[in-house]
From TrEMBL:
Keyword Cell inner membrane set for record: no
SUPFAM superfamilies assigned: NAD(P)-binding Rossmann-fold domains (SSF51735), Winged helix' DNA-binding domain (SSF46785)
The encoding gene: rex
Keywords assigned by UniProt, alphabetized: Cytoplasm, DNA-binding, NAD, Repressor, Transcription, Transcription regulation
The protein's role, per its UniProt record: Modulates transcription in response to changes in cellular NADH/NAD(+) redox state.
Organismal lineage: Bacteria, Bacillati, Bacillota, Negativicutes, Selenomonadales
Main location: cytoplasm
Organism: Propionispora hippei DSM 15287
PANTHER family per record: REDOX-SENSING TRANSCRIPTIONAL REPRESSOR REX, REDOX-SENSING TRANSCRIPTIONAL REPRESSOR REX 1
Localization of this protein: Cytoplasm
Residues within the DNA-binding region(s): 18-57
Pfam (any one): CoA_binding
A GO CC term attached to the entry: cytoplasm
Record family assignment: Belongs to the transcriptional regulatory Rex family.
Protein name: Redox-sensing transcriptional repressor Rex
NCBIfam families linked: PRK05472.1-3, PRK05472.2-2, PRK05472.2-3, PRK05472.2-4, PRK05472.2-5
Length: 217
């Protein structure tokens, strides 16, 4: 794989999980080989784009034959780092945090929910989906003990920065931030902001402007 020597666009990286998800489904359907045309049809992405994306990481598939599903799935999983079995923590176990803690699909991707943090005394000590809720004050100790690399922020907006600061001090390397505000972190920390209202507002745009569905990009 050659991804270390070139810069891969964010758009390409964002498509990799889609390829991964579709290849998993194909594997479940016992499909052994798939062409970029068929993969493209399933994903609504052009075969040229798929070939270009995958070529950024090395040579996959056989000309005139297609991609071996099992092999490509393993390769994309490795590119995504899913074999690392990352431990993650959820901070804030309210409506959103509760739902995320009970979402079983993360573990099938190799992500392990190792701890949950909150400040509400009625929640400390509870076990959700088999995982203990700790007080925020214990974060540094628990993050070290449980080798946690990723923190998911699911606290009210007003507390997001304070939680991010604690995550950084605790040694976390990546943050998935659901609070609707930009958090400030050192340059060495990766942050992905997730704002569910973006999807709904985009849908509103298409509905309000009566854009024909086929013209969506
Ligand atoms: N509910 C949703 O569908 C949804 C969707 C997208 C984004 N969000 C965002 O996610 C965040 C959480 O939303 P919610 O609806 O789950 O809120 P919520 O009020 O139901 O839960 C918040 C939880 O965070 C805890 N908390 C508060 N301050 C804390 C701190 N300093 N440290 C640790 N825990 C703390 C609270 O005790 C509570 O358990 C908000 O920023 C919200 O805007 C929510």
């Amino acid at each position: 794989m050659k991804e270390d020597s070139i810069i891969i666009s964010k758009a390409t990286i964002d498509r990799l999980p889609l390829y991964f998800r579709t290849l998993r489904l194909l594997q479940r359907e016992d499909v052994e080989i798939i062409s970029s045309e068929e993969l493209g049809r399933r994903l609504g992405i052009t075969p040229e784009q798929i070939r270009k994306d995958l070529a950024s990481f090395g040579q996959f598939g056989k000309k005139g034959v297609g991609y071996y599903v099992k092999e490509l799935l393993r390769n994309i999983g490795d590119i995504l780092g899913l074999h690392c079995n990352w431990n993650f923590a959820i901070i804030g176990v309210g409506h959103l945090g509760w739902a995320l803690a009970n979402y079983r699909h993360f573990s099938s991707l190799g992500f392990n929910l190792a701890a949950i943090f909150d400040v509400d005394p009625t929640k400390i000590g509870l076990h959700i989906n088999g995982v203990q809720v700790f007080h925020l004050d214990d974060m540094e100790k628990i993050v070290q003990e449980k080798n946690i690399h990723i923190g998911i922020i699911a606290v009210p907006e007003a507390h997001a920065q304070e939680v991010a600061d604690k995550l950084v001090v605790s040694g976390i390397r990546g943050i998935w931030n659901f609070a609707p505000r930009k958090i400030r972190v050192p340059g060495s920390i990766y942050v992905i902001d997730e704002d569910l209202s973006v999807g709904l507002s985009s849908l509103s745009y298409y509905l309000a402007r009566k854009v024909p569905p086929k013209q969506q990009i």
